[in-house]
Design a protein that fits this description.
- Chain A: Belongs to the ABC transporter superfamily.
- Chain A: Keywords: ATP-binding, Cell membrane, Membrane, Nucleotide-binding, Transport.
- The complex is a heterotrimer of chains A (386), B (331) and C (510).
- Chain A is of the alpha/beta class.
- Chain A has 13 helices and 12 strands.
- Chain A has 2 domains: 231 residues, 3-Layer(aba) Sandwich (Rossmann fold), CATH 3.40.50; 90 residues, no CATH class.
- In chain A, the strands form 2 sheets. In chain A, strands 6-7-8-3-9-10-12-11 form an 8-stranded mixed beta sheet, with helices on both faces. A 4-stranded antiparallel beta sheet of chain A has the order 2-1-4-5, covered by helices on one side.
- The N terminus and C terminus of chain A are likely disordered.
- In chain B, helix 3 packs across helix 4, helix 4 packs parallel to helix 13 and helix 11 packs parallel to helix 12.
- The longest helix of chain B has 37 residues.
- Helix content of chain C is 77%, strand content 0%.
- In chain C, helix 5 packs across helix 15 and helix 7 crosses helix 15.
- Chain C has 20 helices and no strands.
- The chains are: A alpha/beta (386), B mainly alpha (331), C mainly alpha (510).
- Chains in contact: A-B, A-C, B-C.
- Chains B and C meet through helix 5, helix 6, helix 11, helix 12 and helix 13 of B and helix 1, helix 6, helix 7, helix 15 and helix 17 of C.
- The structure holds adenosine-5'-diphosphate, iron/sulfur cluster (SF4) and magnesium ion.
- The site of iron/sulfur cluster (SF4) has 13 residues of chain A, from loops.
Chain lengths: 386, 331, 510
């Protein structure tokens, strides 16, 4: 268990502890210095590689139909990083698994998932498989369980190559070694023979990144790639991701429940709530001019962001997300929204244009947020409010 | 554990609630959920109903202890053999070309000395069920005690108890049960049930110990210990309720296994002895009559299977009810 | 790893030692070994009692007597150097001699049954896990529950009646009435309909095809009096062998890359050619010839795989060897059936046996003797398999379901690995880890499970020795039996631990 990326004496990453359980003294990943800034990398191209149109996913269960995704649309351009942010349970993973074609058979899916113009949902299982891992790759949340414990790292990386092209094993292993080196694992040749349990959490996630890019994909979907990791490792992993993306010229869909993570990482951000996108905009707009109270609420729980609450206490959004089986009438955020009015309880706001081109939000009262300097103000207690 | 001010991330409470299938319906209690899942398990319900019917039939028909039953014949009186002892039970109604639905004089027929085979079979059901129940109960209690003690105290206590368990596991159950049955078979079914129960606890002991080892590290147990709660109280009040599902399931399956074990022992001649009877003993006694009077063989066999199958289904239903995760797959 | 094994061996040894002590006391307590003599009216009663007390050391208290027994038993540990002495039976026979005869019988019975139950059970378990909640899954689940709710002796008696006595009667005039053919065809249709599943039209066609094929085949078999002199024939063998080649290829490699299939087909082809080439050698071979042929088959299979495998050499070798052995097995069965006619004549038409391991004093060609064994093994094997099979399917199914739910299986799919690889390489390999423990328990437990089967089918194996000796309160043979059964438990548990470590690098490398 030697992980050069871990400082001596650092606690081992605990797979059970999600990001929600971080020790409070440690800065949010937003502040951890990501050496390679996104601006320094190749910017987004013109061409769309992935386009999702009105995707819905629901699961029939004993308790009723779980409507996990209720109409998600977005587009990702070449080399672009799109952040998808939302509370746990908001349908981020389900929508990305739908793109990968990895949902259970019981799932009912509708909508379109276009990869370079071809609808994946219309393709045969075999055609879907040929794209999976080759053109669209995925990195998962928990590196402790995402690797098969009984095969060596080299085996599992080589398998990703051999799944799409039959070649001598040696050649596949050589490619695996190259990838391990690329993601910053020292002594990659030796490491090929290691088993996952001989890797630390951070190294396993690097190996997962190596596996994702080994076939030069066009899109990498990273589903909470840092959530299960120790905070000190999180920034390194994000940095590796950005570097590697440049190396293989891929676009990234970066999924997280932590707005801080997308801050220095994403070109654009999509905020999800209760299975729907509620706001889409350039990253800076999201941070400085949110037009949806839920986004503002998320921002309100991040400390020391410019324009944030200065010294006043942070306040999380009160309440819990709605049941996906019996969604309340009207705006799904209305039970928790400080701006909610009668109309909010009656009709669900569509995703609509706001005061800037390309910035859309699903809120009846987005203009109220435009009226104040600091939208997070609504999420502070009266006495603390400026 | 939830620190609402954790910077930059979503509050833990909300996250947890969201994960529970996106439901904030009134939180149901664990027991209610279990009950609901169990009653929805169709095979388990069928098993439960069948078992209840069999129990009621067996105990009400010929009565038990000094309580008389509604069936007018007993299982020991010798009578004249009528019509070669054929069963008079008929279940095919006349309009289907059968004899009509009736029980007749001897629904299950008579054995070769004219005993009423229905009464005899019912007696066998009573005895087999009693033994199986005692075996299941004794084995479960001992297994739980040994496993809990070993898992809670660790150290030398654990070493001794678990080595002892290892030794007992080495002796195949049928073998040790046969040896004990050879000695205690004639002491009546209660004694037989008790001694067999004494050797059927090993699997459960290991299971309970494993559960206890992990429970032991949980915060609520450490808190209780820190508060100076006595070991006995921690085990009984804090830990056992947490694994009651595991124990109930194991106990149910133990009863099913005991039915078959008793039958096997009686078949080999090391189980229930005269003048007592049991389903296994009936089959054993009449197996040679198979070609001439097959009903003597079929009826007790069908009852053994019906009981064992019902109990197994109930166990399966309980397992699903306590641990629904087992049946979910994301393929 | 070595330390681990040595430690494990030492612990197992002491556990076994303690178990024999417990067992010895229980056996000593199980009854009065003098009872028959005390009740007898023989004039030399006193002398007989005296002699038995001396024979069994009954004047020593049981705990001490154990050490006398142990001293003799210790000799068994060091072969050749010391004499293995497990005492004598009441009748004065050496227990070691009794055991060795009984042991070989039981082994014959148990090995085939266990291996068969394992292979069938694990395969069916995997298939039902992959098709959870399908008609097939429900059917198998119900059957599994039914099987392990069956008293084995009850099944055994039924098998004897219908599988042997009535079947043999029927063989005298083996015609299948058209009604029976229709009923069996319907059953087969339903069976395949459940297995294949699919939408409505697919089900109907499956049913119809299976019905016509089965009922037709039965009718044909009946018309041609096939049962009077059964055999597979070269057509059936060829078709099955080619099917086997496709099946093994599908399991080990899939069809994207053809070389594996070519290697497997070549193995099947060579097997069939050898069928003709070796005709004279196989007229009356010795057991050794068969073993040698099996080894040659493996070697040829490896050669074919190596030569034709191309980029998938490893998979090609596996497929070729498996196909080769399977084809060999088919040829073997065909030859056995070839002896049916003459064998049937020699046993007076009672082909399926109900008693014992072999027909007493039966001598014949290799194939006739082989068939004799096979027909004796058939029913007890079915009885044992039924129940073990149920356990294996249930266990494999739940283990597979558990594994299929793991993140690494999702990862495997996400890299675009074909479903075959996901199931065989990732899911099955991990699911096997807990199953090794079950195998160990089952293999060891089967020895005692055979106790009942042996009783019903009149095999004079270890089980019968145990039961008769226990009934007579004859302690030494009982202890002898336990020594073997207990050792089996301990050794197989040890093997399970080692197998576990072998399958799981987390244990192997620590
Ligand atoms: N197989 C399934 N069956 C039923 N509900 C599911 C299934 N998978 C996910 N869900 C539900 O879908 C919702 C969205 O889940 P998910 O996409 O994982 O959220 P997250 O945004 O945290 O990634 C959750 O409420 C979850 O319980
Ligand atoms: S629509 Fe109303 S309830 Fe919903 S977010 Fe906007 S203001 Fe709040
Ligand atoms: Mg998620």
């Amino acid at each position: 268990m030697t992980d050069p990326s871990l400082p001596v004496g650092a606690p081992l990453p605990d797979p059970a502890a999600g990001g929600v359980n971080q020790p409070e003294i440690i800065e949010s990943a937003a502040e951890v210095h990501v050496a390679t800034k996104l601006e320094e990398t190749a910017g987004p191209g013109e061409k769309e590689v992935l386009r999702v149109e009105d995707l819905t996913v629901s699961f029939p269960t004993d308790d009723g139909l779980v409507r996990a995704v209720r109409g998600v649309s977005y587009a990702v351009h070449e080399r672009e990083v799109l952040g998808i942010v939302g509370e746990s349970g908001s349908g981020k993973s389900v929508s990305s698994m739908a793109v990968m074609g990895l949902l259970p058979k019981s799932a009912r899916i509708s909508g379109k998932i276009l990869y370079r113009g071809d609808d994946l949902l219309k393709k045969s299982a075999k055609q879907q498989r040929a794209l999976r891992g080759k053109k669209i790759a995925m990195i998962f949340q928990d590196p402790m369980t995402a690797l098969n414990p009984v095969y060596s790292i080299g085996d599992q990386l080589a398998e990703a190559v051999l799944s799409h092209e039959i070649m001598p094993r040696k050649k596949a292993l050589a490619r695996a070694e190259e990838m391990l080196a690329l993601v910053g694992i020292p002594q990659p040749k030796k490491r090929l023979d290691n088993y996952p349990h001989e890797f630390s959490g951070g190294m396993r996630q690097r190996a997962m990144i190596a596996m994702a890019v080994i076939n030069n994909p066009d899109v990498i979907i990273a589903d909470e790639p840092t959530t299960a990791l120790d905070v000190t490792v999180q920034a390194q992993i994000l940095e590796t991701l950005v570097q590697v993306k440049d190396e293989v010229n891929a676009a990234i869909v970066l999924i997280t429940h932590d707005l801080g993570v997308v801050a220095g990482m994403a070109h654009r951000v999509l905020v999800m709530y209760a299975g729907k996108p509620v706001e889409i905009a350039e990253t800076d707009r999201i941070f400085y001019h949110p037009r949806m109270p839920y986004t503002a609420g998320l921002l309100g729980s991040i400390p020391s962001l410019e324009g944030g609450g200065g010294g006043s206490r942070l306040r999380p959004i009160v309440g819990t997300p709605p049941s996906l089986i019996n969604l309340p009438q009207g705006c799904p955020f209305s039970p928790r929204c400080p701006l909610a009015t009668d109309v909010c309880h009656e009709s669900e706001p569509p995703l609509a244009a706001t005061d800037e081109l390309g910035h859309v939000a699903a809120c009846h009262h987005w203009d109220k947020l435009a009226d104040v300097d600091d939208p997070t103000v609504y999420f502070r207690t009266e006495s603390e409010a400026v | 554990m939830s620190d609402p001010t954790t910077p930059g991330s979503i509050p833990a409470a909300a996250a947890v609630a969201g994960d529970a299938q996106g439901m904030n319906v009134v939180a149901r209690t664990q027991a209610q959920m279990v009950r609901r899942r169990f009653f929805r398990h169709r095979a388990a319900m069928a098993g439960l109903i069948t078992l209840l019917l069999i129990v009621v039939l067996a105990f009400s028909s010929i009565g038990f202890a000094s309580v008389p039953g509604w069936w007018d014949k007993d299982y020991f009186s010798i009578a004249t053999v009528e019509n070669r002892g054929r069963p008079t039970l008929s279940v095919i109604p006349t309009w289907l070309g059968g004899d009509g639905m009736h029980l007749g004089e001897h629904p299950f027929g008579q054995d070769n000395v004219g005993k009423d085979y229905f009464a005899l079979t019912m007696r066998g059901v009573q005895q087999s069920l009693t033994i199986a129940f005692i075996v299941g109960l004794v084995g479960t209690v001992i297994g739980t005690m040994i496993g809990a003690t070993a898992g809670y105290f660790r150290g030398r206590v654990e070493a001794v108890l678990m080595r002892f368990t290892d030794v007992m596991i080495t002796i195949p159950l049928l073998v040790v049960a046969a040896v004990l049955g050879r000695r205690y078979g004639s002491s009546g079914i209660v004694v037989l049930g008790l001694v067999i129960g004494l050797v059927t606890w090993t699997g459960l002991a290991r299971l309970v110990r494993g559960e206890f080892l992990s429970l032991r590290e949980k915060e609520f147990v450490e808190a209780a210990r820190a508060a100076g709660t006595s070991a006995r109280r921690i085990i009984v009040k804090h830990m056992l309720p947490n694994i009651v599902g595991v124990i109930i399931v194991a106990a149910t399956l133990a009863v099913a296994a005991a039915i078959l074990l008793e039958a096997a022992l009686s078949f080999l001649g090391f189980g229930v002895q005269d003048p007592d009877t049991s389903l296994g003993k009936l089959i054993s006694t009449y197996q040679t009559a198979f070609s001439t009077r097959p009903w003597l063989f079929w009826f007790p066999g069908v009852f053994i299977i019906a009981i064992a199958l019902s109990v197994n289904f109930i166990g399966d239903g309980l397992r699903d009810a306590f641990d629904p995760r087992q049946n979910r797959v994301r393929d | 790893m070595l330390v681990f094994i040595v430690r494990r061996v030492i612990i197992s040894f002491f556990i076994l030692l303690a178990a024999t002590f417990v067992m010895y006391l229980l056996v000593a307590n199980s009854g009065n070994p003098l009872q028959d003599l005390q009740e007898s009216r023989a004039p030399n009663r006193e002398a007989q009692i005296e002699a038995r007390i001396r024979l069994l050391n009954l004047d020593t208290p049981a705990p001490l007597r154990y050490f006398i027994w142990l001293r003799g038993a210790a000799g068994c540990l060091v072969p050749f150097a010391l004499e293995c002495d497990l005492g004598q039976s009441i009748q004065g026979q050496d227990v070691t001699a009794l055991l060795s005869v009984a042991f070989s019988q039981t082994l014959q019975l148990v090995i085939a049954a266990t291996v068969l139950a394992m292979v069938l059970g694990i395969t069916v378990g995997i298939v039902t896990a992959l098709r959870q909640y399908s008609g097939l899954d429900y059917t198998v689940t119900f059957s599994a529950f039914l099987f392990f709710s069956l008293p084995i002796f009850w099944v055994a008696v039924l098998l004897k009646e219908y599988g042997a006595i009535r079947f043999n009667d029927w063989l005298a005039d083996p015609t299948i009435p058209i009604g029976v053919a229709v009923v069996l065809g319907t059953i087969s249709g339903l069976f395949w309909m459940i297995v294949i599943a699919g939408d409505r039209t697919r089900r109907v066609t499956t049913f119809a095809a299976a019905f016509v094929a089965s009922a037709g085949a039965l009718w044909l078999l009946s018309e041609t009096q096939w049962f009077a002199d059964p055999g597979l024939g070269i057509v059936v063998i060829t078709v099955t062998a080619v099917g086997l080649a496709f099946l093994t290829t599908a399991v080990v490699a899939g069809f994207t890359y053809r070389n594996v299939l070519y290697a497997a087909l070549a193995a099947a082809g060579i097997g069939i050619v050898c069928h003709f080439a070796l005709d004279s050698v196989l007229d009356d071979p010795s057991g050794l010839t068969i073993v040698l042929l099996a080894l040659v088959t493996v070697a040829v299979g490896m050669g074919l795989g190596y030569g034709l495998g191309g980029l998938q050499r490893r998979q090609a070798i596996q497929a070729a060897v498996l196909t080769g052995l399977g084809t060999g097995g088919l040829l073997f069965v065909d030859r056995l059936l070839g002896a049916w006619d003459s064998y049937s004549d020699r046993v007076g038409g009672r082909v399926i046996a109900t008693i014992g391991a072999r027909t007493p004093n039966f001598q014949g060609t290799f194939w006739e003797e082989g068939l004799d064994r096979a027909t004796h093994l058939l029913l007890p094997t079915i009885a044992i398999v039924l129940i073990s099979f149920a356990t294996y399917t249930r266990y494999t199914r739940s283990s597979m379901l558990e594994v299929l739910n793991q993140d690494y299986v999702r990862t495997a799919r996400s890299k675009g690995l074909a479903e075959r690889g996901v199931v065989v390489k990732h899911a099955f390999r991990n699911a096997m880890i807990p199953i090794t423990t079950l195998m160990a328990f089952d293999f060891a437990g089967v020895l005692s499970g055979a106790v009942i089967t042996e009783r019903v089918f009149g095999w004079t194996g270890l089980g019968t020795l145990f039961v008769t000796s226990l009934a007579r309160v004859d302690p030494n043979p009982v202890m002898g039996f336990f020594l073997i059964a207990g050792t089996a438990v301990v050794v197989f548990n040890m093997l399970a631990d080692i197998g576990y470590a072998f399958l799981d690098p987390r244990i192997r490398l620590s």
